[in-house]
Amino acid sequence: MRIDRERCIGCRSCVIYCPVGAIKAEDDEVRIDQDLCVECAACLKSGVCPQDALHQPELGWPRALRSQFSDPLVAHPVTGISGRGTAEMKTNDVTGRFREGEVGLAIEMGRPGISTGFADVERVAAALAGRVEFEPLNPVTALIDEETGRFRDRSVLKERALSAIIECKTTEDRGIEILKILKEVSEEIETVFSLCIINRCKGFDVPFRERMEAAGFTPRINGKTNVGLGRPLA
Fold first, then answer.
1. What is the pTM of this model?
2. Mind listing the GO molecular function terms for this protein (predicted)?
3. Collapsing DSSP states into helix, strand and coil, what is residue 30?
4. What is the per-residue pLDDT across 14-52, written as a single tens digit (0 to 9) for each?
5. 3-state helix, strand, coil in the chain (%, to 5)
6. Quick check: bond before 19 cis, omega within 30?
7. How many CA atoms lie within 13 A of 119 on its CB side?
8. d(C-alpha 159, C-alpha 97), whole Å
9. How many CB atoms are located within 10 Å of the residue 73 CB?
């Protein structure tokens, strides 16, 4: 995002609309920190600027990733859909991606309002590589080498996003090992992440919950429950 210096009158109306604090007001000048800006376009879409001084230039690679991961109206070129994750992660309603005995994980890094650097996304993906099955339709997976968890294009590491979701799955038997790895790597990154666990219920019970609690983890059962109305294929 850019500010037209000739139009801007320094009114500061746009400052509060930046979710990551990239718009700075110093003396009579308002500027955008290009390193912090995630190209979410929230300031522009607010329509708050009385002078129409905000504008978004055409974004080249790899900066375009910021918009793809941060602006919910921008489609990812690989998946063809907008959003940071996949619908099936939340519903399991069509393909039956998560079967009995499996544990799905959704690691949302940055959480809208905090942001994350792709270097931190790589640290988490690399810690999981070789131990989990990454979701192929996920936009993060499309950028990494699944065997190593490293981004194939190293220029991506300098970019930031409002948030990015790593989607993967493992078995219930390896689930606790993965949770311990995530706890360790969380100390090495400069952002936050929420961790969603997906597990097929047996009756009214969540099989993996007992294992988590026995290992010292405290799950919060406040998520989504799918009743199978979509008749999954598996």
1. 0.92
2. 4 iron, 4 sulfur cluster binding; metal ion binding; oxidoreductase activity
3. strand
4. 999 999 999 999 888 999 999 999 999 999 999 999 999
5. 30, 20, 55
6. no
7. 7
8. 30
9. 10
